[in-house]
Each structure stands twice: as structure tokens, then as C-alpha cells.
Write a structure and sequence with these properties.
The protein is an alpha+beta fold. It is built from 12 helices and 12 strands. Helices cover 25% and strands 18% of the residues. Strand 5 and strand 6 form a beta hairpin. The structure holds protoporphyrin IX containing FE. Protoporphyrin IX containing FE (HEM) binds next to strand 8, helix 11, strand 11 and helix 12.
Length: 406
Amino acid sequence: MGSRRGLLQRLAAASGAVGLAGCSDLLGRRTAAPVADLGPNPRADDLPPRQHAWDETLPADSAGNPLAPRHYRVLLLDLGEDPTEAAAATIERAMRTIEGAYDYGPDGLLHMLAWGTTYFDRLGALGDSPIRRPRVISRTDDPDLLSFDAALVLASNVPSHLSAVEGAMFGTRSELGGESVDARLGEVFSVSAHRTGFLGEGLPADHATVEGIPDGIPGDAPMFTGFFSGRAGTQASEDRVTIPDGPGAGGTTMHLSHLEESLEGWWNLAESDRVSRMFSAEFSPEDLGELGQSMPFADAVREHAGDGAVGHWEKVRRAREGGEPLLLRRDFNTTDGQQAGVHFLSLQRDLADFEKTRDAMNGWWLREEHEDLKDRQNNGLLEFITVRSRANFYVPPREDRVFPDV
Ligand code: HEM
């Protein structure tokens, strides 16, 4: 990873190359308060070096599976100006304010500051960065391919913590968790879009007032589709998704897509059909309750395709490498836009891992097996979801979280 000074020099060069307004005097604009002068992060020893390291803070259910935070907010950010050392210092002070306000964990706050394709484009460095612009990767969807400078990801079991952070960082709130707010992300970024949502027992049923959400969603369902998602054995580890070396080492990539769900059709299926569409035909509803941390994999997806229908899990399960899933899924339910859906936030070492998994989910490789298996119909969840947008980000390690230079 390069130095921030290197980044500013590159920006100055980029401004010459692509005519970005205001870049050429960046070096001249170095101020008296560069990040280096802030001194080391006082909480560096208490917090994991990886911003994406949340798992150790999560409690477990009775089977030992991690219980994800219950409330989420992702603020999609645009830079008001090109990077300067003054802006870097403001961002770092603001992030330290957030860190200081709450314990690091789901009962306090979990967070990540991620950087998007617009940011790397500004640097003229998108091609060398760990990310690329999102692409259309299924022929059933025509999503908006979005680009942002950054994303602030917030998660907590306490929903008011999320609004407090937003109020302190982008509004006028003057204290956060009892600490005074002396730097705001809003001095450097503007909020271009929000993603909000929830995950966990009871929360989908609480949102059944939104049009299109059947009121029969069971009171204990953790997701709108009724199932638990996140068995330890179905998730990549934080180590697996960490970029081991080269550009962005120590960080990870983040994909964020917005999927709309057609829940009426889903809940009209018999329970056994919902199980075989979500998982695989060999599971019964009773089996699922017994499963613990992992699921026995029959690898019979071609056989099931020959019978006319396949499950979501049995397709994506085939994208594993070395026995491990490629994605660390941190997705959550949403009613943004007054529409039931999922914000599919996933972490992976390389965005190609996401695309490979999505390819497996598309199931086109199974279409020859039976004429009833279509792009959407009888093809796992695809009949019930529509992808509205995609965006890609890089999540740097904590010490490089401000204007990463990869
Ligand atoms: C509405 C959208 C989605 C829902 C409701 C959903 C639901 C689920 C569920 C219930 C599981 C089983 C996990 C468990 O038992 O712990 C699962 C596994 C998984 N899903 Fe999804 N999913 C959705 C979209 C996606 C997308 C868009 C992708 C990626 C392209 C994806 C990739 C995976 C992977 C990689 C696994 C684990 C596979 C393994 O065990 O190796 N899912 N999903």
C-alpha cells in the first residue's frame, strides 16, 4: 500500500491527465493538520486491524452459529471535493469519534468505511485497484450499475445508534454516546443514497404493514423468506475474504446489490416447496431445524434439475473452493422504497468470487437438464427476486481507512 503523500502526488498527476478540477494544487493545499499529525489511533490496540472483522464480537445461537446484528444502515457517499490532507484529517477524526462513542460489537456499533469506484476513478487508479465497476451478471435483470466515492456501513442491535451516528456525522447532533462531536463526515462527504434494513427473529413480521408483504409471515422468521441464513459452515471466514497481498492487502472487497422480493408468490408455495426452492429437494422442513452449523451436501443438483426444479443453496454451494464458500454474506432484509427486498452485502477476496457465485446461482449450466428449468422458473430463488442495482467497494484495513492508496 502506498503512502498518502504518494496518493496526493498521483492525484495531482491525474488532474493533469483527465482535467479534474482542483487537483493540481493538492500538494500545495497540504494543511497544518495532516492525518499523521493526529497521532496513532488511541483505540488501535482494542480494535481489530481489519475493519471487516466483526465475527468475534457476535454472540452465537444454541447451535453455535453467529447471530448477525439486527439493524443496518449503509450511507452511500460522494466526496464534495478531491482528497486533501485536511479532508483526510477530518475523516479520521470523525471515524475516531464514531469508534469512541460505542463499544465495538452488535450491542454497541459495528462499522466499516469502504471506498467505491468513483473514488478510484478520481485517482485515475481504478484499473490498479482491487475493485471494478459493477456489471450486469444475469440475463434476467437490468440493474442500475452504481458508482460512489465511499460507503459507511453501520450495524447494531440498537436501532437508535444508527440514527444517532447519522445525525452526528451528517446533521447537527453535537454529542454521540456521551462524547462531543468535533469532526463530521458531512464536512467532506454528502449522502447520495441510503440503504436501511434488519435481520433476525421477529423483524420481518414487524414490517408486514408494507404493501406486498403477506401478513402470514411467521412471527419468528429472521428473513422475509422465512429461513435462517448464516450457518457458520455456509460462510467464508474473515481470513478467506481478506486480500492476502498486492493492491489492497489486508482489506477486502464489498459488493452491494439491492434485490426486490416478490413475497406473495413465495408464500403461496407449500412449505416443502419453499424448502426445496431455497435449499434442495432432499431436505424436509423438519430436517432444517436439526442442522446445526453446516448442511450435508448431496451434490445432486443435476439430478434435481432433471426432475424439473433446483434449490438456491445447492447451486451456490457448488461455487466453493477448497471446501470453503467464497462469500461472507452480510445481507439484510429491507423495505426501502416501500418494497420488500434484500440488500445483498457480501465480502469476498476478489469480486470475481462474487461473480462466480452469482454464475452458479443463475443456473444456466443446468438448463439442458429439463425443459421446465428456466432462467427464473423452477430455478431456486430467481422467480422471486429482481436485481435493482449493484455497486462495488473496497474495504481497507483500519489504518488505511482514509483515502486508501492501492
Ligand atoms: C433474496 C435473496 C437471497 C436469499 C433470501 C438467500 C438465502 C440464503 C439461505 C437461506 C442460504 C442458506 C444459508 C444457511 O442455511 O445458513 C443461502 C446460502 C448462500 N447464498 Fe443466498 N440468498 C439470497 C441471495 C443470494 C445471492 C444474490 C448470492 C450470491 C450471488 C447468494 C449466495 C449464497 C451463498 C454463497 C450461500 C452459501 C453456500 C454454501 O454453503 O457454500 N445468495 N442463501
